[in-house]
Design goal:
This protein is of the alpha/beta class. The chain has 9 helices and 5 strands; from the N terminus they run E-H-E-H-E-H-E-H-E-H-H-H-H-H. The relative contact order is 0.12.
């Protein structure tokens, strides 16, 4: 039995994760909390085998800091970091914190279950380099501008304001960019584009 603690500040996401994982196969969710600042205390009280931790949680608490504290005090506890944000530094910071694995929230339940099982088996699962060609040259000038701003961490609204276009136009550019590059999420695309030198950013 894999005893799981979930740390996620969005109630809907937290409940969905609990309902999806609890009782599935060998999983049992023993705690689900919103604030990463409480994660170490809950580890002491509930003795989980694995913590599924959001990077940013309630009260601006850092899941990365909580992960580092947990791995230092409870080294046997596996930690899987998760995020839905296209912040390119999170992956490396998660490694530095000692997190065992890292996933994006667009991952399906079956994929997440595989990551949890692999992590419990001692494997470290992190986003890797994409082998397929990155079709940067197929993007229009405007799409390249949007991609740069995505990699800079701007939201859709901020991109719209920066480029003086509508949010619907930004959504269209997002869709076209993902279609041309073959990615299913802007978060994964941003990580690849920056880490492989296609985009220069200060992030």
């Amino acid at each position: 039995m894999v005893r799981i603690m979930i740390v996620e500040d969005q109630t809907m996401v937290r409940d969905a994760l609990k309902n999806s994982l609890d009782g599935v196969g060998d999983f049992r969710v023993i705690a689900a909390i919103a604030d990463a600042a409480l994660a170490e205390l809950y580890c002491e009280r509930t003795s989980p085998d694995l913590v599924l931790m959001d990077v940013c949680t309630e009260n601006d608490s850092s899941g990365l800091d909580a992960a580092a504290a947990i791995k230092k005090r409870f080294p046997r506890v596996r930690v899987v970091m998760m995020t839905g944000l296209p912040e390119v530094t999170f992956v490396e910071r998660a490694r530095e914190a000692g997190a065992d694995s890292f996933v994006y929230k667009d991952l399906g339940v079956d994929g997440l279950a595989r990551v949890i099982r692999d992590t419990c088996a001692g494997k470290s699962v992190y986003p890797g380099r994409r082998e397929e060609a990155f079709n940067f040259g197929e993007l229009t000038r405007r799409e390249r501008e949007v991609l740069v701003l995505i990699c800079d961490g701007l939201s859709r609204r901020e991109i719209a304001e920066r480029l003086n276009i509508t949010i619907n136009s930004v959504k269209t550019h997002f869709s076209n960019i993902l279609s041309k590059t073959g990615y299913e999420s802007v978060a994964k695309l941003a990580i690849f584009a920056v880490s492989n030198g296609f985009i220069n950013t200060k992030i």
